[in-house]
Amino acid sequence: MGRRCSGSTSGRGLEHNWWGKLWKSQVPNKVKIHVWRAYHEALPTMFSLSKRGVGVNKLCPSCRTGMEDSSHVLWYCSEAQEVWRNSALWPVLKKFPGGPFYAFCLFVSSQWNSDELGIFLVIIWCLWQRRNKWIFENKLMTASEIVAWAGRFLGDFLTCNGLDSPVEKRTLAPKALWHAPSHGLIKINVDAAVDSSLEFIGVGIVARDEEDAVMSFLSRRIFGKFSPHLGECLAVREGVFLANFLKLDNWVVESDAMNAVRAIQNPVAEAPEANIVEDIRDYIAGVRNGRVCHISRDGNRVAHTLAKYALSKSVFCFGIDFVPRWLGPFVKADLVS
Ligand SMILES: [Zn+2]
């Protein structure tokens, strides 16, 4: 470590600094202990279980692409990357040059004081809870849900303990804007525009890759009278159709309609959207990695613009690898965030 951290601070100094900040930070003790265990590779990850002779697959049960150790489940896994990218910590964390989990902790403690460290520690804890929910309850929490949960969790703890420092400052206010997907993942934002006086709805879709490039977009009408909720479900289905049309096998469809996302994650057989949801789930089951997640409205502005466009113009607008001139400024506005 000394060699790795050659500079003004020795490896031992960095480590001392980290433990000092960890124990001083204002988060529940169970969070500190969890992070301590992760640092020492003492979490019951698939890798450490298999090392101890438990007959399990070493692969990460979420992404099935990496060996599941602390650094994978809490940082390298595409699921974890989505969470960090959704948090306000990303501009700092993305500078982490890589390494095992302890190196990640040492890097982080060189960036923040013990107050600022709070939300980082809580997200580390939430990432592990999310992993367990997925393995043991088959429940998938979206990245934005995790970040919101971590903020609430820390806020409640501070309030209950009479620590009235503004939570926004400590959580570095989670950002809700659009961000590029992690490596190899295609992000497909979808939205519906519903005007009850019209006999059709507008649907907007935009698919972008890790370099913010627009792979494809769609603005079209779907004829019929639909409730806003059904309209949003139809928009998700159009997004999934587009992924299928483009032959993608690693994608996430993002909708700002929380109820539609919930209906797809936990389908109800007699619900009015049941058929649409079944279609969507069939497609998801047929690809390597396909998901439907929630995103704030602020993170879904391009799809919203495309949906509105379909309400006002009767042209079917579709493209691959190009952006129409009128849409360009909206795509650019997302990149500024
Ligand atoms: Zn993984």
TrEMBL record:
Top-level lineage group: Eukaryota
All residue ranges annotated as the RNase H type-1 domain in the record: 189-310
InterPro entries cross-referenced by the UniProt entry: RNase_H-like_dom_plant (IPR044730), RNase_H-like_EbsB-rel (IPR052929), RNaseH-like_sf (IPR012337), RNaseH_domain (IPR002156), RNaseH_sf (IPR036397), RVT-Znf (IPR026960)
Signal sequence region: none
Domain Reverse transcriptase zinc-binding: 13-84
GO molecular function, one term: nucleic acid binding
PANTHER family: BNAC02G40300D PROTEIN (PTHR47074), POLYNUCLEOTIDYL TRANSFERASE, RIBONUCLEASE H-LIKE SUPERFAMILY PROTEIN (PTHR47074:SF48)
Protein name according to UniProt: Reverse transcriptase zinc-binding domain-containing protein
